[in-house]
Protein: DUF2059 domain-containing protein
Organism: Micavibrio aeruginosavorus
Amino acid sequence: MLRFFLSAFVVFAMSVPAFAQDDMDVTKRRELALEMHKIRPAREQVSEAVNQVARNLPPADQERFIAMVDKAFDYEALEKMSVDTMVALFTTAELQAMVDYFGSPEAKAVAKKLPIYQEKLQPEIIRMLDQALADERFGNTPAPAAPASE
């Protein structure tokens, strides 16, 4: 019986540093996830996506759509869920890399330009999808795609 308690004590004693290390790592990951949200708040990301969708609506409906979505979203809950998910999903090194990159001037410039990039490509993507659906519906054999110009 004494041997059992000693064995259990040794196993427990050896695992405590691992738990402490994991707790420290979780704390660091949470700090980095919160830092990421200072750099790219969830609210801003949702707002960018909503504005992009709104641009496809008639101008008279755009403001109403944006207001409806804004009213429907619980941004605090979304941010908490996002931080918790980042902590659970990403390693400390990955979160640090995200903070380093997304906090850089280059990444901030890219983030501002991405909606413009997407806005320019979206009509062509929709046109291609519509064509593919029409070809499928009417049994047309699609023409081979033209090679991309470089």
